[in-house]
Amino acid sequence: MASKPRAGIPLIAETADPASPFPAALIAIEGSLEAELSYAPATAVEDAYRERLASARRRDRAAGRTLEGPHLSDLLVRHAAKDMPAALCSTGEQKALLIGLVLAHARLIARLDGAPPVTLLDEVAAHLDPLRREALYGALDTLGAQAWITAADPASFAELGDRARLFTVSGGGVREFG
Length: 178
Hints:
CATH architecture: 3-Layer(aba) Sandwich
Structural class: alpha+beta
Distance between the termini: 46 Å
Shape: elongated
CATH topology: Rossmann fold
Number of strands: 8
Strand content: 15-25%
């Protein structure tokens, strides 16, 4: 069972695919408006924020920016199995958490829209071991998404075999690889 988010932090989503090498992640958004939402209805929070914005216009104008609002909120990600903030995880675990979140989002979009989204992944296979690369490519196959994946090293695509068309970009042109 996944760990619970910390007190006062609303749980937004949980990714979980027990068969996946990409760990489940607990995610939440933390900020002043989110804190208010823990004890007040959304319409009251919106009204209070609107009033604060109106009364702070001079201050914000002088600062050249809005000094309060959702743009200051933080996305919090926890490695569910380890009950550890992503920021304290290894670089490999962080990448695996992020890939798991991207795949969970793509599955959600496919379920809501009835069609998988076009998925763009830049250098996603870098530093993944062959098992995780194969799992990523398998998850994209299962999703049925059109995926565009970039890599500087063609070996990153070895696990794809004949499941994909490979292209190379150089000298201002694009040509099929191989």
